[in-house]
Design goal:
By secondary structure, the protein is α/β, with parallel strands linked by helices. It is built from 15 helices and 12 strands.
Length: 348
């Protein structure tokens, strides 16, 4: 949802009325209204490629959602549809084509998701976070992945004051995700709750699933000073701004880390569709901005060694941070919004 909301904010700032189509029971049902937008919900589920029956049921739902999406789009008097690549993008994109409305697709990963693969050649614009082999043409733009203003405008000094981190202290941010990255979460607590030397602070956003066990483990530490464990953080911009190094999965967060020029230790989720998290992590590693550690190789000893090797080497940390910043595309949301505005202008 972060890229879609970032684009929506840019469009709203330009005077465009924006509403959302979402899937019932998904994050958008909660996040979109909180961001100040109206949302219409469809009954959809993801396609489970390992379960033919569930996959068939999801395909039937998607087909049934097309006329519903068409009705909702018409009711909103929409002039253009933007697809974010999720469950809803397929039915919404098909509906837009049937209604002869301009269609803009966005892709956040280094391969096209199913909806975008089906609709890419029929879209007026295809805005990519990364260059993708074979995806060229007059309708293709490489914009980078839109990042929210909460990250782009984060203030390091204020963020550090909030978390109680001294101006000259080193800080590691552990990003466990909204639900929780189990390997990352438990390796971090085991390695760092009683870390030798205590020469850096830790901000650990664990997600809801693992938080109770992690809280218990941290509370049992003989000295957990300098280790802030949070179940949820509504503004990751503060966590990134306050930190010098991040330990994270390598999904959407890679562009947020780059936006603020943060070095990273990235642990790709091994079951991500198309193994796109490994590709994302490799993108940062190839640029010298990150260390890629396979999920199967991460344990407390490896983690502590990697963190110490970076945070205790100022020259290496500075080099990685500069490399990360060089990958940033802070204008991504504005660039996608500009494509939308150009198409709306062409229709008027």
């Amino acid at each position: 949802m972060v890229p879609a909301l970032a684009i929506a904010d840019e469009l709203r700032d330009s005077g465009v009325t924006v509403s959302f189509l979402g899937a019932r029971g998904r994050l958008e049902a909660d996040l979109v209204p909180k961001a100040g937008y109206e949302v219409d919900l469809l009954d959809l589920s993801g396609i489970d490629r390992k379960n033919p029956l569930k996959a068939a049921r999801a395909a039937i739902q998607a087909a049934a959602a097309v006329p519903k999406a068409r009705k909702l789009i018409k009711g909103r008097q929409a002039e253009l549809v933007v697809g974010g690549g999720g469950f809803v993008a397929g039915p919404a994109g098909v509906a837009a084509r049937q209604m002869k409305l301009p269609l803009v697709l966005t892709e956040a990963d280094r391969h096209l998701g199913l909806a975008n693969r089906l609709l890419a050649r029929r879209a007026d614009r295809l805005c990519l976070a990364f260059e993708i082999e074979g995806m060229t043409g007059a309708n293709v733009r490489v914009t980078g992945r839109p990042v929210g203003k909460a990250v782009l405008n984060a203030d390091r000094e204020k963020a550090r004051e909030r978390f109680g981190i001294l101006p000259d202290a080193r800080c590691l941010l552990v990003m466990g995700g909204s639900q929780g990255a189990r390997t990352v979460n438990f390796a971090a607590v085991e390695a760092l709750a009683e870390r030798p030397g205590r020469d850096f602070d830790v901000i650990h956003v664990s997600g809801s699933r693992d938080y109770p066990q992690l809280r218990e483990r941290l509370d049992s530490a003989t000295n957990g000073d300098g280790y802030t464990l949070l179940e949820y953080e509504p503004d990751m911009g503060d966590g990134i701004a306050a930190s010098d190094l991040a330990l994270a999965r390598s999904g959407a967060s890679v562009f947020e880390l780059a936006a603020l020029g943060r070095a990273a230790i990235l642990v790709p989720y091994p079951h991500a569709t198309g193994d796109h998290q490994t590709a994302n992590a490799q993108w940062m590693a190839d640029a010298g901005a990150a260390v890629l550690v396979p999920d199967a190789d991460l344990d407390a000893n490896r983690l502590l060694a990697e963190v110490n090797s970076i945070l205790r080497d100022p020259a290496r940390l500075e080099s990685m941070s500069k490399a990360s910043g060089a990958l940033a595309r802070p204008q991504a949301a504005a660039d996608v919004a500009a494509e939308v505005l150009a198409l709306i202008g062409d229709e008027q």
